[in-house]
Specification:
- By secondary structure, the chain is of the alpha/beta class.
- It has helices at about 20-30, 35-50, 55-75, 80-95, 100-130, 150-160, 175-185, 200-205, and strands at about 140-145, 165-170, 190-195, 210.
- Helix 7 links the parallel strand 2 and strand 3 (about 190-195).
Length: about 220
């Protein structure tokens, strides 16, 4: 996405919303992952829209584009937040082409945010149920890093009474694997942690591998 028009000429640069600023810091610290970041970006952009004092679609559009640009500069190539921003841009383009009032744009984005939240929750629940059904009793599972989707699936399997073991790596430099290990240990799952260089050996000892993906490409 090119720099928004608000950065050109003598126009006053729109302010970056505090929720967007907090997300930028999280992205820069690699403290947020793909699925969650989609929900967080949608929530932040909905807040930009709701809190804006703009009296017209063009002005609100410049504010949204400035905030999206700040996010794009900081975040990795995650699919969920990118899809969210495309949805916001679509609503903005529709409002401009149809010459809607700013109140209509606010309502459209609020509805988009509510729909996304509901869809995300339902999707994660379906994935967890499907993945949990693939895990046989007594299995050894390999995973790595921290995926909230994978973690939810393993929690669902444990909730169903399955007993299994998880082997995983530290996942440096952020040690995300340690966070996954702690979360699993808290619900009574046997966990074995290894160094990243030992992933090949751990995989050979596992019955199946379950991992998350930041994006799916052809």
């Amino acid at each position: 996405m090119p720099p928004p028009a608000a950065f050109q000429g003598s126009r006053k640069k729109p302010e970056i919303h505090p929720k967007v600023e907090a997300l930028v810091l999280l992205f820069e610290a690699k403290g947020i992952h793909a699925a969650r970041s989609g929900r967080e970006v949608m929530e932040a952009l909905a807040a930009v829209t709701a809190d804006s004092t703009a009296s017209g679609v063009e002005t609100l559009g410049r504010e949204l584009e400035a905030n999206m640009h700040a996010l794009i500069e900081a975040m990795p190539a995650y699919a969920p937040p990118s899809n969210v921003m495309q949805r916001i841009q679509f609503e903005l383009d529709q409002a401009k082409s149809r010459q809607l009032a700013v109140a209509d744009l606010r309502a459209a984005i609020a509805q988009a945010a509510a729909s996304y939240k509901e869809w995300s929750e339902q999707a994660r629940a379906r994935i967890a149920a499907y993945a949990a059904a693939l895990i046989p009793a007594g299995a050894t599972i390999f995973t790595f890093t921290l995926s909230e989707t994978v973690l939810r699936a393993l929690r669902e399997a444990r909730k169903r009474g399955l007993v299994f073991k998880v082997v995983l790596t530290e996942s440096r430099p952020n040690n995300d694997g340690l966070s996954t290990a702690r979360s699993l240990a808290e619900i009574g799952v046997e966990v074995e942690l290894g160094i990243d260089a030992g992933a090949g050996e751990l995989v050979r000892r596992a019955d199946l591998m379950i991992i998350g993906a930041e994006a799916i490409l052809s």
